[in-house]
Amino acid sequence: MSIDNARRYTHERSTALTLQRTLLPRNTVKHPAVETASRYLPAGARVALVVGDVVGHDVLASAPDSL
Fold first, then answer.
1. Which phi and psi (to 5°) does residue 12 adopt?
2. Structure pTM?
3. 15 in helix, strand or coil?
4. Contact call for residues 61 and 52 (beta carbons, < 8 A)
5. pLDDT score at 5
6. Helix (H, G, I), strand (E, B) or coil at 58
7. Element (H, E) at 3
8. Calpha distance 57→8 (Å, rounded)
């Protein structure tokens, strides 16, 4: 029974990981003004969307409160 449970768990986990990975975009949009990326990190029921805009070209422009 333990071996059957281990096999079932391994199969279900493999299936879930495959499904989760197929939901990510395979190609990102190529545009000179936009950079896109995606990454899968198992974190339960959490979703994050990050959008940023930087005016300027130096470190102070991108992170003014960190210096």
1. -65, -40
2. 0.42
3. helix
4. no
5. 92
6. coil
7. helix 2-22
8. 53
Residue 53 identity: D
Note whether 37 and 28 are within 8 A (CB). yes
Task: Write out the DSSP string of 18-55.
Answer: HHHHHTS-SS---BTTB---------SS----------
Reported as a single tens digit per residue, the pLDDT across 1-45 is 999 999 999 999 888 888 877 877 777 777 787 777 777 777 667
Nearest-angstrom CA–CA distance, 1 and 13:
18
Structural contact between residues 66 and 58, judged by C-beta atoms closer than 8 angstroms:
no
Q: How far apart are CA 48 and CA 23, in angstroms?
A: 15
Instruction: Spell out the residues 6+ positions from residue 47 whose beta carbon is closer than 8 angstroms to its own.
Output: none
